[in-house]
Amino acid sequence: MRVAFFSTKSYDKEYFKKHSRRYKHDIIFYETSLSEKTVNLAEGCEAVCVFVNDHIDENTITALSKIGIKGILLRCAGYNNVNLEAAKKQGIKVLRVPAYSPESVAEHSLALIMTLNRKTHKAFNRVRENNFSIEHLVGFNLFEKTVGVVGTGLIGQAFAKIMLGFGSKVIAFDVYENEELKKKGVRYVSLDELFQQSDIISLHCPLTPETKYVINKDNLQKMKDGVMIINTSRGALINTKDVIGGLKSQKVGYLGLDVYEQEQDIFFRDLSESVLKDETISRLMSFPNVLITSHQGFFTREALDQIATVTLNNLTALQKKEELVNEVI
Ligand code: NAI
Predict the structure, then answer these.
(1) Which EC number(s) are documented for this chain (predicted)?
(2) N or C: which end of the chain has fewer CB within 10 A?
(3) Sequence-ordered strand ranges (E) for 31-158
(4) For ligand 1, is residue 34 a contact (CB within 6 Å)?
(5) Could you say which of 19, 96, 204, 234 is catalytic?
């Protein structure tokens, strides 16, 4: 099947080329993102393959349908950037990679926690400048601290298990309780209780109308002073303006973000020679206790292998009209 890949980087090409030898698909790689304006690049293709920040709205889907696109393949788990109703109306199948190394994102959440807590990023810079002082680098033990996990799906489970390994008390909120986690010592509580009791809150639920801005002014008030908030899930789980208020009042003691609501025009790009126009992210970066990474939670060799093979299998299933096990309905 001929497929146009959008928003591709060198690593996408490397991993898809490595795995595509076993398949007979004709892949065209584009660096540009998919939008109504770039749909024409997919002419002559039967499918498009996109990533987290391609904005696939109704107009884009209508234009894709007009040029004969039958499938939208997401190289990621989240699908909040695709208008599913519009795709259904046009008979375009949407497929994703539901589970690729959940440990990759869980371990990145831990990396954010450990860096914010033990300030290794600051220590690294200090030592390079021959500054061997440890003033202001004090951290806290994770042992016996309460860690609240919002969303105990694949990533949340992997994360909860890591934190149990540290001897932390792990509490969780999800619409479904996971029995295996309960047996391991995770206690499910209401969302309010999780906010009230946690020293660290880590978000692992999808972005839905119910979860949008789950971290907001009202909920911040329920939290412990100096709480650490980690978001490796989707930017809009956090109301950024409210969290900036929380940082200014010191209610929020640490903020670790791998995702950001307005990341679409910023993340995955080298803007080092540009003037950053987004004042909100500039404000966030001005706090000494905020750590931002640009959506790299998924970025491990193991995850890239799985993303490539699952996407290519999805494409084969679409071509052969087989059962679409990874269809988003
Ligand atoms: P999953 O589908 O396995 O788990 C999501 C969990 O959230 C489920 O247990 C579900 O019941 C729960 N949930 C749904 N609505 C909820 C609500 N209102 N409150 C609390 N929990 C709720 O998904 P997975 O694989 O664990 O991924 C989680 C999220 O991580 C994805 O939606 C995606 O946004 C993000 N992600 C981020 C990546 C990164 O590179 N930073 C890479 C992959 C995923």
Answers:
(1) 1.1.1.28
(2) C
(3) 47-50, 71-74, 93-95, 146-150
(4) no
(5) 234
